[in-house]
Fibrinogen beta chain (Bambusicola thoracicus), 466 residues
Amino acid sequence: MKLLLLLLLCIPAIKPQASADYDNEVVILIIINENKSENDKFYLIMCMAYLACEDSPQVDPRAHRPLDKRVEAAPTLRPVAPPISGTGYQPRPPKQDKQDMKKGPIIYPDAGGCKHPHEELVGVCLFSWKGAEDSIFFAKYNDIILSEYNTEVELHYNYIKDNLDNNIPSSLRVLRAVIDSLHKKIQKLENAIATQTDYCRSPCVASCNIPVVSGRECEDIYRKGGETSEMYIIQPDPFTKAYRVYCDMETDNGGWTLIQNRQDGSVNFGRAWDEYKRGFGNIAKSGGKKYCDTPGEYWLGNDKISQLTKIGPTKVLIEMEDWNGDKVSALYGGFTIHNEGNKYQLSVSNYKGNAGNALMEGASQLYGENRTMTVHNGMFFSTYDRDNDGWVTTDPRKQCSREDGGGWWYNRCHAANPNGRYYWGGTYSWDMAKHGTDDGIVWMNWKGSWYSMKKMSMKIKPYFPD
């Protein structure tokens, strides 16, 4: 009777957790020695019942949202085109040694004892050292060549004089008109600046210098000589406005454009759709140098990221660091973000690294349909005000971005959550989270659901043969 009472007390405590999160049930079999006394049996059963009735510890793989099979269909992956492929950039040309780049003295050719002033003037010899007859021959030949050059010079002189007398005056009149028009526009701009200055609280101050070299993206800048990791200005399309970005010129031969960075929790990533579209945060700051050498926390912007990945075949490097200083990375050789009309759909391929293939294979701790719920490849971008995730439900409260702290390519819901909430110290629990979910900066395949990274960044680079 006592045993039956204990079992009745324990079953309600265990069953709800099992039915909520798992498809499989665990049965514990207790074998009691018949030779023991009734009191020993009773105390042993009480101990086992106490262990069973204890509150179960929070299960690690929390990222998925379990199915209610009575009303929900099993999840399926969205079809997505593979990332843009092709040749892309040509391999970088080998760097020349600075000593090889120094110009040596020009040595003019020697033909028959005659020193020529330039290769194009072969045959023009004003002095000879092989005797009087040769000198007379070369002197006559020189007279003929010089006569031809005099004729050519006269023709050029007449052409220039004609332009000066006829064409230049009319061109000057046109230029004067253009200058007058520009002068009027400058006056309008000066008036507009004077008006705006009245609204300024203080004059703008540049905290650090911006390099002169710029390009389509950071790899282009690297090839033009910008080999210092700092903030640059890039312009992927000549018909769009240039913008600032941090370029990593050191990692894996440099040329990386930083599109996302988390490092200190200084920027809130729980933003709306339009903010993720445009981008937000602090690109870079000065770490004591005269240039912006230290990246800040920011999201570059979905429109910009999509544009950069459409230039040609692109790869993405995702780096992360825990609170012990250990580091891992995930490199995807193919990475394309589609435009806003396609809800910035994610397409990745060719994984390499030691962090785990969270984007393509989902959370390694889960299996079957639960794991399918955490695959990110093919997903649309979601924010708390634009629900495009794979959690198909009629309940508006069940939304991945709202529960998991940021905008991302959520499925139902995630194996990776780089834009989640920043938790100091790494380990956190469901009762610390706003909605009781694993909403930290998570990469499940490395640290599980309940560990938030100290640092995580995403950087892209055009693919080209090494």
The two ends are 76 Å apart (CA to CA).
